[in-house]
Amino acid sequence: MRLRSTLTASAVLAAAVLVLAGNAAVAAPARHEAEASPAVCTGTIDSNHAGFSGSGFCNADNAVGAAAQFTVSASTAGTATLGVRFANGTTTARPADVLVNGVRATGANFAGTGAWTTWVTLTLTVPVNSGGNTIRFSPTTAGGLPNIDYLDVEVTGGAVGGNGQPTDQNIQYYGRWNRSNASWYAMGWAGGYLDARFTGSSIGVRQRNAIDLYYSIDGAPLQWRRNVSGNVTLATGLPGGSHTVRIGYRERAGSYTGDPVFGGLVLAGGAQTAPVGRPTNFVEFIGDSITVGQPNANRPFTAYPWLVAEALGAGHSQVAQGGACLVSQDCYGMMDWFRRSSGSATYDDWNFSTYQATAVVINLGTNDIGHGVSTAQFQQGYLVMLERVRQAYPDAQIFAMGVFRNRYVPETRNAVAARTAAGDSRVHFVDTAGWIDPAVDTTDNVHPTDAGHAKIAQRLRPILDQYI
Ligand code: GCU
Ligand code: CA
């Protein structure tokens, strides 16, 4: 008996130790109240429906994009389980996109809960970076969000090694990528790129047809591989540990018919991808050849958009096309075309919840003159463009640059003033007079040299820096 009870006691003790160890391994979820800064609520913090935790809840405006956003921190990159507590006193579900660091990770469907005082918790899983992350609930219908009480966050899975395929969640894409073909992700417009972290001593990329690509390993200066196809080796003999790679493509436009598609990373045997950081700021540049960086050899990455965003530590895209205008009058009018995934899309196919820009910089008006666009037409078109950009990116700081050739500059300024007067406090006119000397800083009075782009970047960067 004595022996037996001793055994039993130690077995109980062992079980207790195991339970303790189990508890210690799973940290309690961290609670983030919707009413507490740095959480953001596009609406009001209310306390009129009982049952909430803390001192109130977020009653977001009933509108598409009127969001509740939380800032959460994770000790490691991996999968987080979210518990979002909400009440929806209507009988209609309120769907929303869930954006992690500005990129749509999943959707949330906030069903009716029967009463505004009936609070329930919806559970979701999303990937998170190590360190700070923003988690944003952005409603997709005019009903807006339900009332949101808090967000519980618990990192429940460590970093998962990926296989380097285009669908690999560890790969971070920037810009307009058409992902409808899981084997070949197609870069639209210009300046799209991707970042990844990988293990193993070599790295390559799979290409479909000939393309000029540029890449960087571990943050080294970008370099070109021109006219390559098939499995393209980018580096061998890398030291142990993990490395980062960035890959981008020359834009398909004009007479250049390269194939800017990403077919996956070619990893060394047994190697994997791992999560890589993504900046919280993203700057989208909308424009013409100047924004692409044409005709310079290293466009897009010696063009001012790339230089400015990199200097600010932000992600970026160049939604731009040589010859583009603001107005679609026998021209790619970007006031319409910016809603597309590329210059060859046949309808407004871009889904703006794929990512949200924190800043949008517009540089348009150089080419409209050649298509007979009147000043009145231009101003009206610019106003519509600013409204559309606001609709696409509800929270972005929007910058309208006077074009370097001094065309339609008063109209650009007037359109911004009209939006400001209409209550949009995040739209800014950028006066570029004197930034470059066409005789010195351009190749043909229009297109800046690389040094000209660097001058522009130096002027634009501090302006954006005030706002993002
Ligand atoms: C009611 C309710 C609010 C809620 C709103 C809505 O006004 O009192 O708390 O946010 O409906 O429909 O969003
Ligand atoms: Ca509401």
At a glance:
The chain is α+β, with helices and mostly antiparallel strands and 468 residues long. It has helices at residues 2-25, 289-292, 304-311, 334-337, 375-392, 409-421, 438-441, 450-465; strands at residues 30-33, 40-41, 43-46, 57-60, 68-74, 78-87, 94-100, 103-110, 120-128, 131-139, 147-157, 172-174, 177-178, 185-187, 193-199, 203-217, 223-235, 242-249, 261-262, 265-267, 273-274, 282-287, 315-320, 359-363, 397-401, 427-430. Helix 3 (304-311) packs across helix 8.
- In helices, the fraction of residues equals 10-25%
Overall pLDDT confidence? 92
CATH superfamily of the largest domain: SGNH hydrolase
Radius of gyration: 25 Å
Tell me the span between the first and last alpha carbons: 73 Å
For the largest beta-sheet, the strand count, sense and barrel status come to: 7 strands, antiparallel
Strand content: 25-35%
Q: Compounds present?
A: alpha-D-glucopyranuronic acid, calcium ion
The CATH architecture classification of the largest domain is: 3-Layer(aba) Sandwich
Helix and strand content put the structural class at alpha+beta
Distinct helical segment count: 8
